[in-house]
């Protein structure tokens, strides 16, 4: 049995298939995808890689790379199907197709021949160059990855890598050497079993795709925006009439619906004027944290100024001074010293300083 068999039907030709599709890089003669799974043969490759996986404890083999190559090889039929489908639909160019068939597959064939020679030497108890062995494994894994990418199967390959990492980390955490060797020997079947179980679960209960969720998100946002708009308008009107106790629930509802900078500021001021200084401080600090996380310097200055005023009302002059200075510094840097926001913040700072002196 050859190490890697490249089926003739993978070389598209008008003599083999008259049907064609015109692509940007010329005519693509269609490949019969139904025949690929039957004709592709990689049993020897799997045997070599899995054989090394079982015997790997005798030499320093990069288990993660080895297991990735071993499992990905078993997915090669799917990669080739993806290659053929992509070529038939113009998603894959003639150049990419030739790179996969005439470049990557022969590279894997050559690499597997080297690995088989290493495997036999290991079985015979011969000393081998571990660096060259790992280079050969890495070369096959790299070719498999590139083949998967070209064939549009990168997601499948990424899944293999993720589960291999999960399983190898689990084995690495085993304390007893005997347990590690036993688990290492059976790692490929465990990885395949995990992958198959996850794929069955995904097929039976698929996660909603972004395209399916996006309209719902937009609708939900529109609904929340309308709710926030109505609540804020009602709260604002009540606040203008100094009906603070009635305004606050509406302003809270608006902020709950949409985290808008102005909502933090207005709700904080409503609590200050109510007054409920404890909740006012809480809202001001939340708004300040929100501003810092989003690098919103204007909101940061506004909430610092408000927090300074609230802390002054609570009698915490040291805290009030810290935040008032922060507000003035930001407003001065962003707007300059003569803008109303800066002037107001400076006046608040001066009041706090005078209060601190007379304390």
Features:
75% helix; 2 domains; disordered N terminus; mainly alpha; two-stranded antiparallel ribbon; elongated; 359 residues; 2% strand; Serine Threonine Protein Phosphatase 5, Tetratricopeptide repeat
Structure, explained:
With 359 residues, the protein is mostly helical. The protein folds into 2 domains: 8-207, no CATH class; 211-358, Alpha Horseshoe (Serine Threonine Protein Phosphatase 5, Tetratricopeptide repeat). It has helices spanning 36-39, 43-55, 63-74, 76-88, 94-123, 130-150, 154-172, 177-185, 187-204, 210-240, 244-257, 261-273, 277-293, 297-314, 317-335, 340-358; strands at 20-23, 26-29. It has a two-stranded antiparallel ribbon. α6 packs antiparallel against α7 (154-172) and α13 (277-293) runs antiparallel to α14. The protein is elongated and about 90 Å long. The N and C termini lie far apart (94 Å).
Count the strands? 2
Strand arrangement, largest sheet? 1-2
Structural class by helix and strand composition: mainly alpha
Shape: elongated
Report strand %.
under 5%
Main sheet makeup: 2 strands, antiparallel
Helix content: over 70%
Q: What is the N-to-C succession of helices and strands?
A: EEHHHHHHHHHHHHHHHH
Query: Radius of gyration, rounded?
Result: 33 Å
Low-confidence stretches: 1-9, 37-43
Q: Can you tell me the number of structural domains?
A: 2
**What is the number of helical segments per DSSP (H or I, 4+ residues)?**
16
Distance between the termini: 94 Å
Q: Mean pLDDT, as a whole number?
A: 83
